[in-house]
Each structure stands twice: as structure tokens, then as C-alpha cells.
């Protein structure tokens, strides 16, 4: 199956080389050179994934990302950002992006991120809102709230929470979580899972020391408890 990718990038050289690279990987690629053209194509044609540069003429990537979500499209969006400040990343994710790559990036890394996003359960057909006690996870809007207040998660924390929510009540081993959430980083250690679970608990649990949402299953892994 040839997934269709929309690449929105104003730098001609990057648009051309990345477009060619994606085609060599077997993707069907459509290009847009500014934010308006990107938004028009994204809302008019079906895509499996959108690569969206943030610094774009006419309309910037954040606006385009937000408007694509407002238009009701759940197509995965990978942001290309030249900025590394956390606030920019958080803003992008809050506006509905699924992941981001900071320029300059290695094309292998970008391809791996794409594959990870495309491999996930299709958002269009899957459940998009999970009510987990006082926590509400909206995978379409890419938001998490606790009693209505926004909770800011990193991209990876969000992916991890989503993976847990998609398997609510199921005990998941660290290896399985690693494979699905970090799949492309083969040298990542299972300890990474523990670190991210711990930070999720800090943000989500009433008492992070006595977690009632994300529980540890001794000797196996973790489970998102049905509330
Ligand atoms: Ca740009």
C-alpha cells in the first residue's frame, strides 16, 4: 500500500530532495510551497500524513495545523521546526500536531518518525476521546485535560498515554511498549519506559506515589486501569 503524504515546505531545495527521498521509499507525495496551498490541499485531498514546516509564507505551520484540526481532519501531522524551544513544541502539539522533527534533521530519523506515525491505529476510524476518570484524552485534538484543566505532555508522553488508553485494562510489558511507542529507536532501554511512566504519573495522578490510573504490574510492566 502506498501511503499518500503531503509535504508543505517553502524551501525549494528541501522540498525537492525530501519529496524525492519519500518517493524512493514508496510514498506517493504531493507538494505545497506555502501555508495556504498546504491548507487547501490538506482539506481537499485525502492524505495519510502531512509533513508541515512551521516557518512558512502566507500562513505559518501552527495556524495551518490548527485550522486543519478545526476543519475536522485527523490526518497525522509531523511538524518541521527550526526552533528547539520547548514552548514551541508544546504549542505545536497543543494545536494538534502528532510529532515534530527539529531542523536540520537526518532523513533516516524523519523516515522513522513517519513510519511510527503511519503504523499507529488510524485516527480516522478509531476512538478519539478517552475518559479516564477525571482525565480526558482527545487524540484528535491532541489534548489532555484533568477536571477540565489542560495538561501539557511531551509528544512521547502523549503517544505513551494514547497507547495505554488504546489498551485499557491490558497489561503491557516494557518491551511491547517500547516497540510500539519508541519502535524506531532500537537502542532505547526499557528504563526509558519507566522514566516516561513516572513523568506521566506526576502530571496525571492525584497522588503520583500511589498511582491509581497507570498501575505497575510487578515483573511484567504497566496497565492503564479502568476507572
Ligand atoms: Ca520554512
Brief rundown of the structure:
The chain is an alpha/beta fold and 227 residues long. The protein has 8 helices and 12 strands. The chain has helices at residues 12-24, 35-44, 61-70, 86-94, 107-119, 155-166, 174-181, 191-204; strands at residues 4-8, 28-32, 49-53, 77-81, 99-102, 129-132, 135-138, 143-146, 149-151, 172-173, 214-217, 221-224.
List keywords for this structure.
5-stranded parallel beta sheet; 39% helix; 227 residues; globular; single chain; Rossmann fold; 2 domains
What's the CATH first level of the largest domain?
Alpha Beta
Dominant shape: globular
Give the overall pLDDT as a whole number.
86
Structural class: alpha/beta
What is the CATH fold-level name of the largest domain?
Rossmann fold
Q: Radius of gyration, rounded?
A: 18 Å
Number of strands: 12
Distance between the termini: 38 Å
Strand content: 15-25%
Strand and helix map with partners:
Blueprint: E1 4-8, H1 12-24, E2 28-32, H2 35-44, E3 49-53, H3 61-70, E4 77-81, H4 86-94, E5 99-102, H5 107-119, E6 129-132, E7 135-138, E8 143-146, E9 149-151, H6 155-166, E10 172-173, H7 174-181, H8 191-204, E11 214-217, E12 221-224
Parallel strand pairs: 1-2, 1-3, 3-4, 4-5
Antiparallel strand pairs: 6-7, 7-8, 8-9, 10-12, 11-12
Description:
- It is built from eight helices and twelve strands.
- The chain is an alpha/beta fold and 227 residues long.
- The chain has two domains: 116 residues, Response regulator (Rossmann fold), CATH 3.40.50.2300; 96 residues, Orthogonal Bundle (Arc Repressor Mutant, subunit A), CATH 1.10.10.10.
- The strands form three sheets. A five-stranded parallel beta sheet has the order 2-1-3-4-5, with helices on both faces. It has a four-stranded antiparallel beta sheet with strand order 6-7-8-9, with helices on one face.
- It starts with a strand and ends with a strand.
- Bound molecules: calcium ion.
- The site of calcium ion has 5 residues, from loops.
Amino acid at each position: 500500500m502506498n501511503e499518500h503524504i503531503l509535504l508543505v515546505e517553502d524551501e525549494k531545495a528541501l522540498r525537492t530532495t525530501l519529496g524525492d527521498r519519500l518517493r524512493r521509499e514508496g510514498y506517493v507525495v504531493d507538494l505545497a510551497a506555502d501555508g495556504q496551498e498546504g491548507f487547501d490541499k490538506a482539506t481537499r485531498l485525502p492524505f495519510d500524513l502531512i509533513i508541515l514546516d512551521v516557518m512558512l509564507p502566507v500562513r505559518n505551520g501552527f495556524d495551518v495545523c490548527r485550522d486543519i484540526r478545526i476543519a475536522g481532519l485527523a490526518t497525522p501531522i509531523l511538524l518541521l521546526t527550526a526552533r528547539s524551544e520547548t514552548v514551541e513544541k508544546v504549542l505545536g502539539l497543543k494545536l494538534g500536531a502528532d510529532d515534530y522533527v527539529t531542523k536540520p534533521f537526518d532523513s533516516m530519523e524523519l523516515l522513522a518518525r513517519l513510519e511510527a506515525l503511519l503504523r499507529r491505529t488510524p485516527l480516522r476510524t478509531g476512538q478519539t476521546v478517552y475518559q479516564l476518570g477525571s482525565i480526558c484524552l482527545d487524540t484528535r485534538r491532541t489534548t489532555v485535560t484533568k477536571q477540565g484543566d489542560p495538561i501539557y505532555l511531551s509528544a512521547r508522553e502523549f503517544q505513551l498515554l494514547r497507547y495505554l488508553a488504546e489498551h485499557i485494562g491490558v497489561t503491557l510489558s516494557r518491551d511491547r511498549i517500547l516497540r510500539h511507542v519508541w519502535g524506531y529507536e532500537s537502542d532505547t532501554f526499557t528504563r526509558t519506559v519507566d522514566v516516561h511512566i513516572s513523568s506521566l504519573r506526576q502530571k496525571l495522578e492525584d497522588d503520583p506515589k500511589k498511582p491509581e490510573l497507570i498501575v505497575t504490574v510487578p515483573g511484567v510492566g504497566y496497565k492503564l486501569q479502568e476507572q
